[in-house]
Amino acid sequence: MPTQRLSMRRIREVLRLRHVQGLTERVIARTLGVSNGVVHGYLRRARLAGLSWPLPEGMDDEGLELLLFPAPKAASQSPSRPVPDWAYVEKELRRRGVTRVLLWEEYRATNPDGFGYTWFCTTFEAWKGRARPTMRQTHLGGEKVFVDFAGDTIDLFDPVTGEARPMKLFVAAMGASKISMPLASSTGGPAIDWQNGSAR
């Protein structure tokens, strides 16, 4: 899971401790209770933006954030490589059975010289992060288990007769480790399947 971004006030403190106090990255990290890598990353971003201490007169938090975290450069939008409509992609992904691979294949079918799958997924995630901020949740090990039925039923085939039996897929996942346990459950009714899955 990505590290949560420090507040602009704390980033200002990183810059002040480095440039005014002359502290090392390690000492700054210990002082603020963050990792050395976090401090190094913010100092690197400040250096690339041409910032030191004191900050330019009148620089507010929004201005500082724009300098330290510039928006990713948009891919060139030549007629042969149009960028997908991300709002449409997000809307389609809410439909049952629609996957990113399917949407990317549709995009490539209409744009044979279009962008690759990795770019498609990475840019979509970046767009989602800007379009709607998400609430990060921290799960301690063993604290929570998330359970639900997964999508459509699946067919389980009898190896002797070859008869297909519809089964619901019950899935339980640990919050911290993301270890999951799927369980195929015969459709004896939603309440019974839920109880059987939860008991196991």
Please explain how this structure is put together:
It is a single chain. With 200 residues, this protein is of the alpha+beta class. Helices cover 42% and strands 14% of the residues. The protein folds into three domains: 8-68, Orthogonal Bundle (Arc Repressor Mutant, subunit A), CATH 1.10.10; 86-131, no CATH class; 145-199, no CATH class. The chain has helices at 8-19, 25-32, 36-48, 61-68, 86-93, 100-110, 117-131, 190-199, and strands spanning 145-149, 154-157, 164-174, 180-186. Strands 1, 2, 3 and 4 form a four-stranded antiparallel beta sheet that branches. α1 crosses α3. The chain is flat, with a radius of gyration of 25 Å. The two termini are 29 Å apart.
In percent terms, what proportion of residues is strand? 5-15%
Q: Give the ordered list of helices and strands.
A: HHHHHHHEEEEH
Poorly predicted parts: none
* CATH topology category name of the largest domain: Arc Repressor Mutant, subunit A
Question: Which CATH C-level class of the largest domain is it?
Answer: Mainly Alpha
What is the SS-derived class? Answer: alpha+beta
The tally of domains stands at 3
GO biological process, one term: DNA-templated transcription initiation
Domain HTH IS408-type: 11-93
Protein name: Sigma-70, region 4
InterPro entries: HTH_IS408/IS1162_type, RNA_pol_sigma70_r4_t2, WH-like_DNA-bd_sf
